[in-house]
């Protein structure tokens, strides 16, 4: 377990681990630590995305949550770049995207055909959501407001 600067994506994956613990076990954080033979702060730091867990730590954690090797491999693939400050994974979680953009100090690349999120107007953001056909029409206004915030 290595202490590193957390990123929005590491915190998002830490939240995912916490939700797995809560939904797949009857353990609170301290009880999970006892089960794994860890210090309680280790469980907390991993679930908060403050430290990078080793692969062995992840296997132990996910196995305790009843997850199989396929789940572990998929999670490990996502976790690989979670602490990279210069890697913005395209998240499903709008909060992660907002935190990533809020921490940005430079734009390293851009798409000529799409205005960067920090420069979008409300009308432009709404049209992007409408044109994508990914979001349910009734959710678009909520996402536009999230983008503007």
From TrEMBL:
Pfam families: DUF5753 (PF19054), HTH_31 (PF13560). Residues 94-149 form the DUF5753 domain. It comes from the Bacteria. This is Helix-turn-helix protein. InterPro entries: DUF5753 (IPR043917), Lambda_DNA-bd_dom_sf (IPR010982).
């Amino acid at each position: 377990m290595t202490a590193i600067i957390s990123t929005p994506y590491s915190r998002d994956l830490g939240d995912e681990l916490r939700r797995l613990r809560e939904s797949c076990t009857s353990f609170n954080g301290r009880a999970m630590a006892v089960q794994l033979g860890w210090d309680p702060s280790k469980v907390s730091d991993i679930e908060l995305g403050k430290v990078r867990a080793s692969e062995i730590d992840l296997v132990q954690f996910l196995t305790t949550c009843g997850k199989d090797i396929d789940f572990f491999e998929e999670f490990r693939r996502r976790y690989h770049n979670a602490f990279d400050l210069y890697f913005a994974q395209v998240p499903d979680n709008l909060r992660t995207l907002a935190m990533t953009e809020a921490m940005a100090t430079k734009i390293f690349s851009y798409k000529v055909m799409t205005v960067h999120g920090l420069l979008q107007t409300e009308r432009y953001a709404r049209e992007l959501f409408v044109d994508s056909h990914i979001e349910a029409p009734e959710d678009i206004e909520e996402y536009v407001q999230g983008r503007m915030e």
